[in-house]
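Q: Could you fold this chain for me?
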Amino acid sequence: MCISYSHSLKGLSSLTIVDLDGNEVEQIPQGAFRNLPRLIYLRMSRNKIRRIERSAFSNLNSLDGLDLQENDIEEISPGGFEKTGALKYLNLSHNNLDSMNRMGLLSLGSLEVLDFSYNKLSDVDAESLKHLIWLVELRVCFMHYLLELNLVTRCDGCI
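A: Sure. Below is the predicted structure, expressed as structure tokens.
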């Protein structure tokens, strides 16, 4: 299933919360939510999303929280979260991400909480988090276990 703005969300510009949990969504086309200017919280957990495409969440300037946990996300394209300037909470837990990619997180300067728990992180670069100056909580549960098993192969700048 693919989110299609032209059919599914037309005329719903007053929405502040959208919950698409468990709907077997496989992809989010560029600008799928572009005309939902009042959207504050978007929950898309327990779907089948594999990749966050460039501008997938573009023009969601009021978006405060985005829950993408329990998908199959392997990659976040550069610019995947561009134009989501107000985003404070991002949950990417329980996916298949193997690295913290700076390009995918670049436009998240307002982020306060980032959850990367239960992914397949093997490449962690602290530089990818440096621009997140408001970040107060970084969740990487299961990371300690990966370190013990030597599955993390690179951790530049980590403590």
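A (continued): The chain is about 10% helix and 20% strand.
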